Every structure is written in C-alpha cells, then in structure tokens.
Amino acid sequence: MQSNRRIVRLTEELPLKPFDCGNADLNDFLLNDAKAYASRLLAVTYLLEDDKELLAFFSVSNDRISINESDKATWRKIKKEFPHSKHRSDYPAVKIGRLGVDKKHQNEHIGRLLVNFVKDTFITNNRTGCAFVTVDALKEAIPFYQKNGFKFLKPSEAENTEKDTVSMYYDLTQLL
C-alpha cells in the first residue's frame, strides 16, 4: 500500500469524500446505509483513502457456514479440515458484505489488497473465532473472488442465471 494510503473505520463523524464505483447499489450503501448499519451493529465499514480521495471501501459482519447453506460435497470438504472432535453443525465466518473500488482506481489490484487485508486481520487479530470469509458475490465479481481463492458454497448456484449473487467462501485455515 502506498504510504499516504490508509484504511480507516467509518464513523458517524467521518465525512465521506466523493466516491463512485460504477455500481448504484454499492454507492448507495456507502452514502446512505453504512453509518446506519454501524449504529445498529449490523456491519462495520472500512475506507481506503488518502489525503485527497476515497479509493475503496468494504464492510464486514459476522456470518457462519452451515450444512443448510452448502451442498453435501462442500460440507464434507469443510468438515474434513477439522478434527473429528471439533465437528459442528456450523462454523464461524466473517462476511464481506460490500466491497467497491472507485472507478478511477479499478484495475489497480485494490480489491485484492482489501480482501487480503480481511484475511490477514482474521488470522492475526481474530478476536471472536472465525475460520472462513464468506461473500455473496455479484455474478460479475465471481472471477475476482475465484482469483482470490474463494470457492462456491453451492457449486450448482454458479450456473443459476436467476440469482444476482452466488455464495462463496474462503478457508482461513489454509493460511495457518
């Protein structure tokens, strides 16, 4: 990360610099909902900014992966990562709820930087116990998440053209 760039937590008092990632829903979340989500303890939003501009943002919240939300083959792979005595009906996760990069900075690998920041944070400073990162990826973002090591929670969803998003996960234990 460049030296004048920093990741800061969005607070009620923090003014937002202009931002447009090209996706109306993501822009609207940042401008109109992110602070309310934080005040209701639903999600925390972080900004990547420098002295002049807002380059990107992401929000995270608690999540879980359970047998009901995955297919049987995926669930077997997930359970295989844990000793038999540690098998559960669900496993804790952190969800990347929203992630947007300003149009002026797309294709600069900022999205990868932010995803890696989330992964690193929950490996080095995992305060609650969290084994996975999850995301409901927009169809156009699936290749991005795949390049960043995410897998389909239900591989059959990847081909479903009726859904706007696809559930994906990243196993943090592979970084240990």
How would you describe this structure to a colleague?
This protein has 176 residues and is an alpha+beta fold. The protein contains four helices and seven strands. The protein has one domain: Aminopeptidase. Helix content is 26%, strand content 29%. Strands 1-2-3-4-5-7-6 form a seven-stranded mixed β-sheet, with helices on both faces. 30% of the residues are buried.
Brief overview, please?
This protein is an alpha+beta fold and 176 residues long. The protein is built from 4 helices and 7 strands.
Helices and strands, with pairings:
Elements: E1 6-9, H1 24-39, E2 44-49, E3 54-66, H2 72-80, E4 90-101, H3 110-124, E5 132-138, H4 142-147, E6 151-152, E7 165-171
Parallel strand pairs: 4-5
Antiparallel strand pairs: 1-2, 2-3, 3-4, 5-7, 6-7
